[in-house]
């Protein structure tokens, strides 16, 4: 009776060396990662297996040559992976061109961030319990930036524009988004309904009068109404606090 040597578990397994740059290090424990793979996967599949979602990737150099994310990866390759705005010049970038005024869709855990972005005047969709599939499809169909803290959602192939929100605090999250998407010069504060995202426009006091409490009618002269939900709003006691938040975010 004869016996053969047990097959090596690594037989047929290839590997590549990934060097991550800039804030892509947020997704891994080390700048240099050896990633093993079978067959001929795409760069996207291997980089995402290492933890980095594709909407965060703006340039990949494979042995010094710029490559598309759908290119097959070969054994022994060395990859340099860069976020937006980093890496050597002269290469075509992978992320879509920036929008003049970004529009957003947020996952169900970012409701307070959604309110702040609406306060700044940005078209921001949010629901409490959307499915991942619905969020990815909406982001792609309406060309909206998907903001999330769910890496699995951000890795869905439908998502073209997206960002992982690092902080867990809503005002710090807002600072992240303002900086990343250069929103300071694009903000139009207090032009969106915080409740439904509808556009706000001025409402004459005479038209507002039947729709607000008598004490408000006596004290207020300026009103706005929402094109979406029909709500009527005025500068209440919380307005100064909101103005302070806006001023700090756009400083």
Compressed to H and E, one letter per element, the order equals: EEHEEEEHEHEHEHEHHEEH
Output the number of helix runs. Answer: 8
- The percent of residues in helical segments reads 10-25%
Terminus-to-terminus distance:
81 Å
Strand percentage lies at: 15-25%
Q: Gyration radius, to the nearest Å?
A: 24 Å
Query: How much is the average pLDDT?
Result: 94
Would you tell me the structural class of the helices and strands?
alpha/beta
Strand order in space, largest sheet: 2-1-5-3-4
Number of strands: 12
Point out poorly predicted stretches: 5-10
Silhouette: elongated
Q: Tell me about the largest β-sheet.
A: 5 strands, mixed
SSE topology:
Blueprint: E1 13-20, E2 32-38, H1 43-49, E3 59-62, E4 65-66, E5 78-82, E6 104-106, H2 111-119, E7 124-126, H3 132-141, E8 145-148, H4 151-154, E9 162-164, H5 170-180, E10 200-203, H6 205-208, H7 214-219, E11 223-226, E12 232-233, H8 239-249
Parallel strand pairs: 1-5, 6-7, 6-8, 8-9
Antiparallel strand pairs: 1-2, 3-4, 3-5, 10-11, 11-12
Helix pairs in contact: 2-5
Quickly describe the structure.
The chain has about 250 residues and is α/β, with parallel strands linked by helices. The chain has helices spanning about 45-50, 110-120, 130-140, 150-155, 170-180, 205-210, 215-220, 240-250, and strands at about 15-20, 30-40, 60, 65, 80, 105, 125, 145-150, 160-165, 200-205, 225, 230-235.
């Amino acid at each position: 009776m004869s016996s053969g040597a047990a097959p090596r578990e690594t037989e047929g397994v290839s590997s590549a060396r990934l060097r991550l740059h800039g804030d892509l290090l947020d997704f891994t424990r080390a700048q240099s990662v050896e990633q093993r793979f079978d067959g001929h996967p795409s760069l996207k599949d291997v980089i995402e297996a290492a933890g980095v979602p594709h909407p965060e990737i703006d340039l990949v150099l494979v042995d010094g040559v710029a490559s598309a994310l759908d290119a097959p990866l070969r054994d022994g390759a060395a990859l340099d992976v860069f976020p937006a705005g980093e890496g050597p010049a002269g290469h075509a970038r992978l992320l879509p061109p920036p929008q003049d005024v970004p529009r957003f869709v947020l996952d169900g855990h970012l409701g307070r961030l959604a309110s702040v972005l609406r306060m700044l005047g940005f078209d921001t969709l949010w629901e409490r319990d959307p499915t991942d599939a619905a969020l990815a499809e909406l982001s792609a169909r309406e060309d909206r930036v998907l903001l999330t803290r769910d890496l699995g959602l951000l890795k869905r192939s439908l998502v073209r524009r997206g960002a992982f929100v690092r902080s867990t605090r809503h005002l710090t999250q807002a600072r992240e988004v303002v900086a990343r998407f250069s929103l300071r010069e694009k903000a139009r504060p207090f032009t969106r309904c915080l409740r439904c995202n509808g556009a706000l426009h001025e409402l004459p006091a005479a038209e507002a009068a039947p729709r607000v409490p008598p004490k408000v009618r006596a004290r207020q002269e300026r009103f706005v109404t929402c094109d979406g939900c029909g709500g009527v709003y005025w500068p209440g006691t919380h307005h100064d606090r909101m103005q302070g938040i806006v001023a700090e975010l756009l400083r």
